């Protein structure tokens, strides 16, 4: 356990207190625990009712202090609550030390936040692991009551109803087992981007620096390509008129090969993108659904956990087919697939937040998306003020890729898919070893 502090200052020259930081090295334990508890005959704390009990779990630290690691929900107006099952990593509960003390406080919830203390008990992971038995019925004790009342017995009991341990697999476990990320790119070729031959265009090909589309593509693609062994990436454009007849397309291959839309490496995608700018006529509208459905059809064919599909869409404006896009996202949420949307240019992207289901899950025709698979970011938030493109790209890549590991693990877990045994690697630059360059650092 390491600790250090720093002074805080509100008024210049005046110390307003100390903030103390403590740190402890995490164990390698990957187990997660799902448990459920109930209580019996807790003390009545509410004048007009019974009690509104909840539990607070504390992990003991190496220096003897305690840190909150979990709070249950509040069960209203009862002295015999049954709390919902909850899941917690073993690292959070005891940092892999099965005999380390776990302290549990029982409180009566109050609206104003001045929750009444009912009592406490201590246990350990090892005790919990014995499951439902006489060992896991705990007396809830209130030290103040015990000191004042000679006949005091307890303030109720808490009983462990169930305890289940599972291994928590990581993104890297799946990569080591041979799972492939299939990376697809879709680029907005609508007229609102401006004439590519003019410097004001978002598609302008300057001889001195990359445009926002190229930067976003390169930033995300160069990390994801480490997880795709064949380095072949399907790349599409949408919202353009195509030669020779001027037909509008919302999912045309950037290499104009409908039989094989793959480009070799990110450099191949960039080359096809620049060539398309010289060939097609920017038009509209901004339809997302065709490309999403195109990738979803591919993902639908491989649902055994051997492949996961990531679609990067780069756009400058408001989606024209929002109803169809929401339906496409809801359908895709049931597939091994994630969608990254990068907004470029000065437009308002408020509608895009509706697709990014961090707060409210996307729904369509009464169906709610099974999981959140969309991550939206506006590129302008990542532009370095000093004009450092490398730094801008690094910031962008970090944020847009941050949710991919959890989205992938969420899909695998709901389908009961576990990683294959780690495959032997031919060299030290395999995806599993290069993970530290990108996704490994992004909340795996």
From TrEMBL:
PROSITE patterns: C2. It holds the Pfam family Copine. One of its GO terms (molecular function) is metal ion binding. Residues 15-138 form the C2 domain. Keywords: Calcium, Metal-binding, Repeat. Belongs to the copine family. This is C2 domain-containing protein. It comes from Umbra pygmaea.
């Amino acid at each position: 356990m390491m600790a250090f502090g720093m002074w805080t200052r509100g008024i210049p020259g005046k110390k307003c207190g100390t903030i103390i930081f403590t740190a402890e090295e995490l164990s390698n334990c990957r187990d997660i625990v799902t448990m459920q508890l109930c209580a019996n005959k807790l003390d009545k704390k509410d004048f007009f009712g019974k009690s509104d009990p909840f539990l607070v779990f504390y992990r003991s630290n190496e220096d003897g202090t305690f840190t909150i690691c979990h709070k249950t929900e509040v069960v209203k107006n009862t002295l015999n609550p049954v709390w919902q099952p909850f899941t917690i990593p073993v690292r959070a509960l005891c940092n892999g030390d099965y005999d380390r003390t776990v302290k549990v406080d029982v409180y009566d919830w109050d609206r104003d936040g001045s929750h009444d203390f009912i009592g406490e008990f201590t246990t350990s992971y090892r005790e919990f692991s014995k499951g439902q038995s006489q060992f896991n019925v705990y007396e809830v004790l209130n030290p103040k009551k015990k000191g004042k009342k000679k006949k005091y017995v307890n303030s109720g009991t808490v009983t462990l109803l169930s305890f289940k341990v599972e291994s928590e697999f990581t993104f890297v476990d799946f990569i080591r087992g041979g799972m492939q990320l299939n990376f697809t790119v879709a680029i907005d070729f609508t007229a609102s981007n401006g004439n590519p031959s003019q410097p004001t265009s978002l598609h302008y090909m300057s001889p001195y620096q990359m445009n926002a589309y190229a930067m976003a593509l390169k930033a995300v693609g160069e990390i994801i390509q480490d997880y795709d062994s064949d380095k072949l990436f399907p790349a599409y454009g949408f919202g353009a008129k195509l030669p020779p007849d001027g037909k509008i397309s919302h999912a045309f291959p950037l290499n104009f090969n409908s039989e094989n839309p793959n480009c070799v490496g990110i450099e191949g995608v960039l080359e096809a993108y620049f060539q398309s700018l010289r060939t097609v006529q920017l038009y509209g509208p901004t339809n997302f659904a065709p490309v999403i459905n195109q990738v979803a059809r591919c993902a639908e064919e491989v649902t055994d956990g051997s492949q996961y599909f990531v679609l990067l869409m780069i756009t400058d404006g408001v989606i024209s087919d929002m109803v169809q896009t929401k339906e496409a996202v809801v359908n895709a949420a049931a597939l091994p697939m994630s969608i990254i949307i990068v907004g470029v240019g000065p437009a308002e992207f408020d509608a895009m937040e509706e697709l990014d289901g961090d707060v409210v899950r996307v729904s369509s025709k009464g169906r709610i998306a099974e999981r959140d698979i969309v991550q939206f970011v506006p590129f302008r938030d990542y532009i370095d003020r000093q004009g450092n493109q490398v730094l801008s790209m690094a910031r962008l890549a970090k944020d847009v890729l941050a949710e991919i590991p959890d989205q992938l693990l969420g899909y695998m877990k709901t389908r009961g898919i576990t990683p294959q045994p780690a495959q032997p690697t031919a060299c030290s630059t395999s995806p599993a070893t290069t993970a530290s360059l990108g996704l490994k650092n992004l909340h795996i």
